[in-house]
C-alpha cells in the first residue's frame, strides 16, 4: 500500500493576520509620531519596511508549505525546478522566492578533504593551495589538535600571528570559513554557493542543485570521486524571499527549514535571517591574510 502523507493546512490565515498586525502597529507608530512631532517621513519609511518584512516572511512560510504539499502528494521523485525562482503575491506586494534543496550542496562539516579540495580547484584555487586549504578546513572543524599533512592546528595559527585558533568544533555558519587559516574573502565568496552546514552528510546530490553545479560534478568525475554523490532526502531546504514595495522598499528574508513529517508541526526552521550577501565583503581576518607566512609563498590563489 502506498503511503500518503497528510498535507498540512497552509498558514494563510496566520499570514494575513501577521500582515495586518504589522500594519496596525505601523499605523499606531505613525499616529504617535505625528502627535509628538516626530519626523513623519521616517515613520513612513518604518511602516514601509514593516510591510515589506511581513510580506517576505509570509511568503517564506507559504513557500515552505508549498514544498511540503508537493512532496507529500507527488511521486517519489518530485521535481522542484519551478520553485527555483517564482513569485508569491502577499496582499498587493509581489515577493520573489527561491527554494534550494540543501542536500544538493556540499556539507562543510560532512565533506571529506578530497571533496573540499576539488571544490576549491573548481572555483580556481591552484591544486597545491586547494589541498592545503582543504586540510586547514578539516583541522579547523575536527576536535583534535593533530595537524593533518597540509593542515593547521593551534601552533600554526600562533605561528601565523593569528588572534584566534582553529575552532575544533563543527562550523555553525558558512561565515566561519573566513576564520580558517589561509582563507581569503574572495575564495569564501566563490565556494559558499556550493556549501551548506545543514545537511550533515559526506555526500550530496548535484542533480537537485542549480545548473552551475555541473562544473563541480565534472571535476569530481575526472578525479574519480563518484562515491560522493547520493540522492537527496528532500528534507532540508533553504528559501530566499525578497519583497519589493512600489515605493522601492526592499526586504530580503532567508530561512532554512526541515520537513518534520509531523502534521502538528510540519516545518521546523533551522535558521531565520537575511541573505549572506555580506560574505563577499567579509573583512579579512589575520588568519586569512597569513597563509603566505605560515605555509610558504602563495602569491595568488586565483591564477
Ligand atoms: Ca582541530
Describe the fold and architecture.
- The model is unreliable at 1-9 and 278-303 (pLDDT under 50).
- The radius of gyration is 22 Å and the shape is globular.
- A five-stranded antiparallel beta sheet has the order 1-2-5-6-7, covered by helices on one side.
- The termini are far apart.
- Helix 1 packs antiparallel against helix 2 (40-73), helix 3 (113-122) crosses helix 4 (127-141) and helix 3 packs across helix 7 (213-222).
- It is built from nine helices and seven strands.
- The chain is of the alpha+beta class.
- Bound molecules: calcium ion (CA).
- Calcium ion binds at residues 139, 142, 144-145, 153, 166, 168.
Topology record:
Elements: H1 12-35, H2 40-73, E1 86-90, E2 93-101, E3 106-107, H3 113-122, H4 127-141, H5 154-159, H6 185-191, E4 195-196, H7 213-222, E5 236-244, E6 250-259, E7 267-273, H8 286-289, H9 291-295
Parallel strand pairs: 3-4
Antiparallel strand pairs: 1-2, 2-5, 5-6, 6-7
This protein binds calcium ion.
Could you write a compact summary of the structure shown?
The chain is α+β, with helices and mostly antiparallel strands. Helices cover 38% and strands 15% of the residues. A hairpin with a 7-residue loop joins β6 (250-259) and β7 (267-273).
Q: How many domains?
A: 1
Q: Given this structure, which CATH class is correct?
A: Mainly Alpha
Taken in chain order, the helices and strands follow as: HHEEEHHHHEHEEEHH
Mean pLDDT: 83
What's the CATH architecture?
A: Orthogonal Bundle
| Percent helix | 25-40%
Shape: globular
Q: Can you count the beta strands?
A: 7
Strand order of the largest sheet: 1-2-5-6-7
CATH H-level homologous superfamily name = EpsJ-like
Structural class: alpha+beta
CA-atom Rg in angstroms? 22 Å
Total number of helices? 9
The separation of the N and C termini measures 57 Å
User: Which ligands occur here?
Assistant: calcium ion
Beta-strand percentage?
A: 5-15%
**Major pleated sheet:** 5 strands, antiparallel
Q: Would you identify the regions where 5 or more consecutive residues have pLDDT less than 50?
A: 1-9, 278-303
CATH topology: Ribonucleotide Reductase Protein R1, domain 1
